[in-house]
Input
Amino acid sequence: TQLLEQSPQFLSIQEGENLTVYCNSSSVFSSLQWYRQEPGEGPVLLVTVVTGGEVKKLKRLTFQFGDARKDSSLHITAAQPGDTGLYLCAGALWGGGADGLTFGKGTHLIIQP
Amino acid sequence: EAGVAQSPRYKIIEKRQSVAFWCNPISGHATLYWYQQILGQGPKLLIQFQNNGVVDDSQLPKDRFSAERLKGVDSTLKIQPAKLEDSAVYLCASSRPLSGTEAFFGQGTRLTVV
Output
């Protein structure tokens, strides 16, 4: 079973459009992270959210952590071709101590010029 | 600050052969992870070290995979013997020793088993 479910799995949109991708779980997390991965590279951290209900903005990207700490969303405004990549959410389980991050399968995002 | 170094970048082997990957984490990072990433999917944790001790290896196929982190710095991951389904990118990451701390990833080793 997949601890973190990401949706959609694939998304292809035109430049300038808005989009939202989701990361859902039945488990509670002490924190959730979003990473972006380009082909041939390792994932790179975009943001960490730690408080239930927290909203963080990074230029055109808005991240939200659910009130119950079980889900998160990433919203991109006015998408650009440079946003193309694999977006991964990763969580540290509540009470997990020094446990490693659990990753979702990712959302493959393609922004067409 | 130097990033996480991994080698080799690419490896092609025949099934039943052995292979080893090497990782040098960021200086001062006590936690080291090995992840397996199958094409098109998210990384799956294989093993986590805290210094030179194993914290979690519950998803490591121990009949064929082994990993060590002697002296608590660099690490090697070995597969012996390899199977076709082991074809994947093997990512090494390191972080400071707190749950949920940012993990810094290397570029990975792409393994193809033929």
Chain B touches chain A at residues 4, 31, 33, 35, 40-45, 48, 50, 55-56, 91, 93, 97-100, 102-108 (CB under 8 Å). The first strand of chain B starts at residue 5 and ends at 7. DSSP finds no helices and eleven strands in chain B.
